[in-house]
Amino acid sequence: MEDKYIRMMEAFALTKKYLKQQMDLGLEEIQLSPDFKVDFERKRESRNSLEDLYHNIKDCQKCQLYESRTNFVFGTGNSKAEVMFIGEAPGRDEDLQGEPFVGRAGQLLNKILAAINFEREEVYIGNVLKCRPPENRDPLPDEIEKCEPYLIEQIKLIQPKLICALGRIAAQALLKTKQPLNRLRGSFHDYQGIKFMVTYHPAALLRYPQFKKDTWEDVKLLRSEYDRMIGNRS
Ligand code: SF4
Description:
6 strands, binds iron/sulfur cluster, six-stranded mixed beta sheet, alpha/beta, Uracil-DNA Glycosylase, subunit E
């Protein structure tokens, strides 16, 4: 160990001497090889990645919901997605599997995505809360307040061009409004410079199929805005 340390110090001293000689000869900057730069950038990016965020927060105990959760439900999908879909909180299936939108509502969301030519893996899907409220009750204001910063961090890392809030809770939490869903849906809002749309939560569509028509109009609008902004690559 001691030998290794001495060799390292000798290497530093030689490098320093070499750089000084080069500077004396007029060297003003060092050109790094492209491979080194790419590797450096990749490492810097990964330090600030979703994976790092996940590891930093997966054992969160900031609110009471940690006590009853089976799994922490972080989010899923493309870490560089152009579109994010955000619901309110995990339900029973999501809590059991540790992934958002995997139950009946999740299957319906997959169908909605397919209907507008999105693969589930192409977008990013998450929730305002990462832990399931007991009996699927509505999230409490202090739970939202404590958990929302994690979602905000996810949005910052993903940098989507479009966000679609699924349901009243996610829409009101992110837009900081008490307006009802039927006033919020049907047009785009601004969320920190990101185009933000609101539509019904798939679980609500399972209970009230009469809202499917409006949802279809909303997601068609989302898709056409996506095509306008990003280009139709399908
Ligand atoms: S809901 Fe959010 S704030 Fe509450 S324990 Fe889970 S991760 Fe933490």
